[in-house]
Amino acid sequence: MLEDGIKDIGNKLASPPSNLQQLLLLLDKAENLLTRMAQSPSTSMLTVAQPIMKALIANDLLGHSDIDLKVLIASCLGEITRITIPNVLYDDDIMTEIWDNY
């Protein structure tokens, strides 16, 4: 079930693996799940997705130097933007940091 998958990935991203390959796999799964979420999802689905949304802007991910990881993070952030439109999920400072890094 989509909600269970999102919850599982969110829990894993709360303490992301230090191994780059494992992290890439985890973010690839997150991207896949986020693409399956509808725009303007239910409140419960957004609540379940919060850990993923928070993990993506954590310094250890957002500031990572690996280009493949940056591509996956950017893709996930794009999906989050699609899902949450017209609402703004991140504040201006975080959005500035995101776009400065990408």
Automatic annotation (TrEMBL):
A Pfam match? PDS5
Lineage of the organism: Eukaryota, Viridiplantae, Streptophyta, Embryophyta, Tracheophyta
Protein name, UniProt field: Uncharacterized protein
Chief location of this protein? nucleus
Q: Which of UniProt's keywords are assigned here?
A: DNA damage, DNA repair, Nucleus
BP GO terms, sorted: DNA repair; mitotic sister chromatid cohesion
Q: Which residues form a coiled coil?
A: none
Q: Which GO terms describe its cellular component?
A: chromatin; nucleus
The record's subcellular location field reads: Nucleus
User: What superkingdom does the record give?
Assistant: Eukaryota
Record PANTHER family: ANDROGEN INDUCED INHIBITOR OF PROLIFERATION AS3 / PDS5-RELATED, SISTER CHROMATID COHESION PROTEIN PDS5 HOMOLOG C
InterPro entries linked: Pds5
